[in-house]
Amino acid sequence: MFLQCLLIKYYKLGSCFAWGNVVEWGDDVKVVSEDEAMMLVNHQATGDVCTLMMCLQDKGTVVRQMMWLMDHIFKYTNFGIVSLIHGDFFIRQGKAHRDQQLVLLKEHLDKHYRSRDRKWIVLFPEGGFLRKRRETSQAFAKKNNLPFLTHVTLPRLGATQVILKSLVAQQENGIPAGGDAMVSKSKGLQWVIDTTIAYPNAEPIDIQTWILGYRRPTVTHVHYRIFPIKDVPAEPEALTDWLYQRFIEKEDLLSHFYRTGAFPPLQGQAKAISREMTLSNLWLIVIQSLAFLSGIMWYCILQYFYHCLF
Fold first, then answer.
1. Three-class DSSP category at 224
2. What's 36's domain CATH number?
3. Where in this chain does the record put each Phospholipid/glycerol acyltransferase domain (predicted)?
């Protein structure tokens, strides 16, 4: 477990060099870091994954006890093999693959989530990058009399519903179905963390920029809002409405941020409170050095196999 945790830190964070700082807003997710939770995140670019990886480094045991749902393209990065070993799920986008991917996701959760003692799961419900899905989402919204969104797209229900059905403890008369509450090892999902990532000037950072650093250092902003799982409806129609409402709120949050440079205060706050997320420079240098060496290692391995085959 310790070695696996080190590999995750080396490859995932090291592959995503912290090119700039991250500022966190809204609820403090550290207070639920030991509980089971699902993160719902807006998706603008490959750099979103890097941003979250950095944010979660100081959240206790979350990093080594979480499961990622990522686009299959990440499987071919230098941390892809580590993610496979870690038990993350690579989802293939597209209408042609959608139904099959949901079946595979259900099987993956049943096989790996509890057996590997996972507590958090990260999901991008929009099903693709903003720039790729915006036009289609807006056309769907217009056809179905839904809000016209610019900074996010309407989320898809499938993966969220599979996760909730698989990971929320089913209750019968106050105790988990099929067993006694005292002997149950897991309470199931307890929280949904609505996570909104904002980039200055609405210019998202891709993973190449994080690695190569060819853009000026910038500050990425992340807003959290925590919902108890009991507030999340189970029925498909009600769940769809609930998800839509979360992304309508994200649209409002991002509109406010791009207009003012800050997220609005939480209910009951007179002024929004931000927290700069910082990591040790020495630690970052060590991690990045190991990531660089891993790139050289993979180059040597591929070169060796190339010469063996040709």
1. strand
2. 3.40.1130
3. 37-160
Q: Which residues of 168-206 are buried (b: 16+ CB within 10 A; e: fewer)?
A: bbeeeeeebeeeeeeeeeeebbbbbbbbbbbbeeeebbe
Q: H-helix or E-strand containing 294?
A: helix 281-309
pLDDT of residue 293: 81
Average pLDDT, the chain: 83
- Asked if 263 contacts 6 with a C-beta cutoff of 8 angstroms, the reply is no
Q: How far apart are CA 190 and CA 278, in angstroms?
A: 28
- Residues composing the chain: 310
Contact between 148 and 155 under an 8 Å Cβ cutoff? The reply is: no
pLDDT band with cut points at 50, 70 and 90 for residue 257? very high
Structure tokens at 38: 């699902």
The pLDDT value given to residue 225: 96
pLDDT tens sequence across 54-73: 888 888 888 888 999 988 87
pTM: 0.82
Three-class SS of residue 179? coil
| Adjacent-strand bridge partners of 176 | 171
Phi, psi of 221 (to 5 degrees): -115, 135
pLDDT of residue 210: 64
Instruction: Please spell the DSSP secondary structure of 96-125, one letter per residue.
Output: TTHHHHHHHHHHHIIIIITTTT--EEEE-T
CA atoms within 13 A on the CB side of 174: 1
Cα distance between residue 119 and residue 104, in whole Å: 20
Number of domains in the chain: 1
- d(Cα 15, Cα 116) in Å, to the nearest integer? 24
What proportion of the chain, given as a percentage, has pLDDT over 90? 46
68, β-bridge pairs: 122
DSSP state for residue 56 in the 8-state scheme: G
